[in-house]
Amino acid sequence: MENLQICKKCLMLSTRPRLTYSGGVCSACQWSEEKKTTVDWGARKKQLIEFCDKYRKQDGSFDVIVPVSGGKDSSTVAHKLKHEFGMNPLCININHYVDVNTQMNDINLNNFVKQGFDLFRVYPNAKVLRALDRIGLVEYGQPYFGWMTCMTLAPLKIATKFGIPFIMYGEEGEVEYGGSTKLKNSPVYTVEDTVKFYLSGVHPSTYLKDGFTEKDLYWWLPPTDAEVKKLNPAVCHWSYFEFWDSNKNYEYAKKYVGLQEQKTNSVGTYNNFAQTDGILYPLHTYFMYLKFGFGRCTQDVCIDIRSEKINREEGIKLIKQYDEVYPEQFEKQYLDYYQLTKEEFDAVIDKFANKDLLEKKNGRWVKKFDIEKL
């Protein structure tokens, strides 16, 4: 823990994978400053227009795929592509059964569709999804790794079947929140980048060793090399083309697609409008806290500090209040979903807890360090 660093501008810890520092400032804050001072957003918008002109269909068929959750960011991206750039998006949503399509998620997806969008909803094999999520939890400490893999690769699979080579995601998380800067100046990325950055280097084909067939894993395996070569897809992130501000996306989605927020703050943080579409995200960010010593609140605080919504002192108070919160209210559902006993589930938690950063007190893992003293 003696090598633990904290960003001088935001409050992100050096334990974040692939995060780098320069002069004590993390790569996410460096990018935040670059966005404001050096990036030519006019030139990047011109690139986006060129992509749209290249792939826009003249026969009224779909010309861009946009994965959506019903949340603020993906809804904003789809709406702008349709109404500002004249595209006809086919929106893709990947259902997750354990979340039982939470009421908030249903409301926001329905409101989104009512604004004139076509939604293709994938209901992947529930038994396979459960098994892959369990593998992700137990082996990698990633509670919805099966869903994340499907969400990442299924749109590309659908693109090959529909012949739609243009795919637009929201933000490029590595650049925006601190990680690899490889894609900072690239409008497109590859399947190899997807596996390396978004699937933690675990290629889905490794699941074949667990007794699954290619048929079982249809929605989890990428298209073949031949299919990718034939399609020659442009897989992009909106944050490359337009200054990314999740708070502004929230306001935009409220205004144009009827986005609603929760009545109370989300588990592990202070806001009530981000990642409200399921119960596995709080567990996902809790495991992030276990492994790296920072949780959902730290993540949100750093975003808000960079956008100057709050200051560093306010952020410290929020982190101390929320960062260590365990999503206890969903524990029974977790045990049922992963088919684990309480003892087995607790053993997985203990397995991934970073003992250099955390210590167990009264049955919960708490920080050994004081964020104010770093």
Alpha-carbon Rg, integer: 20 Å
Number of strands: 10
N-to-C SSE string, H for helix and E for strand? EEHHEHEHEHHEHEHHEHHHHHHHEE
Low confidence ranges: none
CATH fourth-tier homologous superfamily of the largest domain: HUPs
Q: In terms of quaternary structure, what is this? A: single chain
Mind summarizing the main beta sheet?
Answer: 3 strands, parallel
What overall form do the CA principal axes indicate?
Answer: globular
> What is the CATH topology descriptor of the largest domain?
Rossmann fold
Q: List the domain count as a whole number.
A: 2
Give the CATH architecture of the largest domain. 3-Layer(aba) Sandwich
CATH class of the largest domain: Alpha Beta
Strand-residue proportion: 5-15%
**Strand order in the sheet with the most strands:** 3-4-5
Could you say which structural class the secondary elements and strand pairing correspond to? Answer: mainly alpha
Question: Level of helix content?
Answer: 40-55%
The average pLDDT value, as a whole number, equals: 92
Ends distance: 10 Å
